[in-house]
Amino acid sequence: MKIDQTPTYDAWPFYWLTRAHGRYQDALSSALADTGLDPTSWRILMILKEQDRMAVSDIAQQANTKLSTMTKAVQRMEASGLVSLQPSERDRRVTEVMLTQTGTDSVPIAEQTAQHVFNRAFAGFDPDRLRLLSDLLGDLAENLR
Q1: Sheet containing 95-99: which strands, arranged edge to edge?
Q2: How far apart are CA 67 and CA 139, in angstroms?
Q3: What's residue 137's pLDDT?
Q4: Exposed, middle or buried: residue 117 (CB in 10 Å: 0-12, 13-18, 19+)?
Q5: Are 42 and 28 in contact (CB under 8 A)?
Q6: Is the pLDDT of residue 9 over 90?
Q7: pLDDT tens digits along 94-107
């Protein structure tokens, strides 16, 4: 599909993606305020709950975050006792991140908080519509690869 004319800003899909993302970040930040987490640390917890350990660079890639931003976030989480860091056994230049017991204990609270935001965001969506949205966004992301 090719569009010959630039649509008005409110007919531009990226406008709505940006607006939805901004509102999601604000809602998640607000919901997480009492947990001591922010959206970046929440993402790190969600990624690490699926893996025993991961390189900081792999977490950054998975979270769609710059490596420098991720490194600072991981260091803050280490200082607060949520994660531990150690050099990789395979490559000492690589720093691996693991959840501590405190981090593991924080996962259910973080998931519950995010579920509230998810439910609010997708109120009125039936499962087919939500699946279609996910498929369309996945296709969009692949097209921009």
Answers
A1: 53-55, 95-99, 83-87
A2: 25
A3: 95
A4: buried
A5: yes
A6: no
A7: 999 999 999 999 99
Do residues 63 and 40 make contact, with C-beta atoms less than 8 angstroms apart? yes
| Residues constituting the chain | 145
Write out the H or E segment, with its range, that includes residue 51: none
- What residue type is 84 in one-letter code? S
Report the distance separating Cα 130 and Cα 44, nearest Å: 24
**What is the structure's pLDDT at 12?**
86
The SS3 call for residue 42 is: helix
- Cα gap 56→123, rounded to integer Å: 34
**What pTM did the predictor assign?**
0.86
What single letter denotes the amino acid at residue 53? R
The phi, psi pair for 120, rounded to 5°, reads: -65, -45
Task: Show Cβ contacts of residue 45 under 8 Å, excluding neighbours closer than 6 positions.
Answer: 37, 82, 99, 103, 106, 107, 110
pLDDT at 1 over 70: no
**Which amino acid is located at 5 in the chain?**
Q
